[in-house]
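Here is one chain, start to finish.
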Amino acid sequence: MLVKLSREGGTISAHMIEDSFTPVADGDPLPAGAILVSLKRFLEDADALLARTVPLGVRLETADSPEKLGSAVHHLAVIELHVPYFRDGRAFSWARLLRTRLGYTGEIRITGHFLKDQMAFYARVGADAFVIVQNISLSEIQAAFFEMTNVYQPSVDRRSTIRQLRATRPATISAS
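Its structure:
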């Protein structure tokens, strides 16, 4: 199941959508339509892949830095960050790096072994789609984005931090 996030007025909503990208294994022939290839295949066939007139996505393992994509990052419709096990936090860093330093505006998709509790954190650093293989309902996914009411660190989502919220609150005077 592919869950795509939409953001409006500071609110996140999750929607199940049909995945239009076909994963293609290294060495397999390319089908018509949108495809998703490994970083290895992309680096080997970048010119031919980018010359196609269909949407292209690249799958990165957590050991693969998005910086390896170079300026081609701006020609990709999807970058899939595969998490091999839920304790591997590099995908958080890669999503943030894609959005901030590399200026990537396409879809950042998280796949693999992540927890429902991590989805709000992934959304904070720029992820906007998730491939769900666990038995999680859409309402549980939606609820995951509202479990964190305030945040301590600034991030890609530009939510006000607790420190900023405290600074804007009127001072209270204690009568003693």
